[in-house]
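Support case: nicotinamide-adenine-dinucleotide complex. Customer-provided input:
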Amino acid sequence: MDIKHNYIDGHWQAALGGTTREVINPANGELIGIVTDSKQEDTRAAIAAARAAFYERGDWQRMAGPKRADLLLRVAAAIEARADELARLDTLDNGKPLREARCDVDDAVACFRYYAGLITKPQGGVYEVGDGFGPMHAYAMHEPIGVCALITPWNYPLLMATWKLAPALAAGNCVVFKPSELTPLSAVALFEIFDAVGLPPGTANLVLGNGPDAGYELAQSHDVDMITFTGSTRTGQAIASAAVGNLKKVGLELGGKSPNIVFADADLEGAVEWAMIGVFFNQGEVCSAGSRLLIEESIKDRFVARLAERANAMTIGNGLADPDMGAIVSAAQLGKILGHIARAKAQGARLVCGGERYTEGECGKGYFVRPTIFDGCHRDMDIVREEVFGPVLAVQTFRTEAEAIAMANDTPYGLAGGVFTTDGARALRVVREIRAGVTWINCYNPTFNEAPWGGYKMSGYGRDLGVNGLQEYQQIKQININLQPGTVGWYQ
Ligand SMILES: NC(=O)c1ccc[n+]([C@@H]2O[C@H](COP(=O)([O-])OP(=O)(O)OC[C@H]3O[C@@H](n4cnc5c(N)ncnc54)[C@H](O)[C@@H]3O)[C@@H](O)[C@H]2O)c1
Ligand SMILES: N=C(N)NCCCC=O
Ligand code: NA
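Agent response - structure generated as follows:
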């Protein structure tokens, strides 16, 4: 089996220490790849390459915007040409159903196209300014930040990479990217594409390795100008602390425990399906998962019974066979999920369906868990407070709109939330009160490259996607122009 290497300064390179790491298919425990295993010294080499490319040669940042855009369009076309292979890679590596992986690839193609287009549109502004020193004129222009470090999790390997790489590169930065050590294979393919389209050496660098050894150096280094991270809140806190050393800019997309509120007047069959998409899509390994179902008391029994009936009918299996739900990413993550389930039971939540590992047929060799629903949950249970990052739903009831809103906001997180009702004014009132960065009305989880994505509260700060997602990776420079050069007679 080929060993996949780091991509530094336009070359594939083994980690200096020569050690490697096995990449596992969580559907059956089989070895699907071997990657180089980087340490701090490798990360430092990648940072040095990005710095030389940005500060010494500067060819990427000075390349005309339309030309940079053209290269990113070629990246999009190359991803599209390898779409089946890339979807298969993410399914093999992460465990997700193939049709979901295929959506991720389509979104990644569109994301590169979106930022290629956006970088050619007007940016900055022109300002009428005071004339205390004679006639003056001011404008603001957007510039790249410099060397950006990007760290992503394992739940959407290609898509999370793209959400950061596409805008960071479009803006003219040089980057060092570290994907999750659990799911590095599609990132390697993406860098093969960067290599093939001919990004200037040092523009995009790939470091393969774990968080403490390869990742943390990116947060700590004084040679990095910005770090953007998607992952757990705890790791985000460690990164933000380390980033203080040189006051690098920090962007954090962290965890969540998002509320999905269903009122009695909702289209209930639709709400059931969206609630399933909310918490069982991608095995529930979604930062925005609607993992707290807040349901109006009068319909609770009927709704939960229907939800359980449909959850029990979901097919589970190897993602390549395109089941309704695939494998959990790793043995460790499966263990965490089963731990959350055991604690919920111990704390008195009532198990409605699932609640155990799934081992039918070949699944015993992999890491599967049945879609799980707990009824009778209350605010001080861990299952209501802590992110599971698995297919586990906690159900609570409310009687009034005000109570639903208070329960929705009763969390340290603030990534997402949903509301189901046929009362339009109520839907708008409720989403306005939810303290979260991403909300849905009568749907849950779809998201689009055009609109900004990110959290409130302990779900982080900064935004991916949309115009804001480009501006994350840009400095703004004010330029003041004296329209009448000469002396002003200030000092007599
Ligand atoms: N808000 C969002 O958009 C979003 C999206 C996806 C996932 N998430 C969150 O990600 C979490 C699950 O992903 P995970 O388990 O991969 O998270 P994680 O924090 O364990 O790891 C994320 C990445 O950080 C790296 N890392 C770990 N420790 C590090 C350290 N000390 N210094 C630098 N890098 C380090 C990992 O190697 C990985 O690449 C969940 O909490 C989920 O909510 C958030
Ligand atoms: N619906 C999609 N694609 N969601 C991506 C969510 C990323 C965070 O986990
Ligand atoms: Na894997």
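The longest strand covers residues 136-144.

Case will auto-close in a few days if no follow-up is received.
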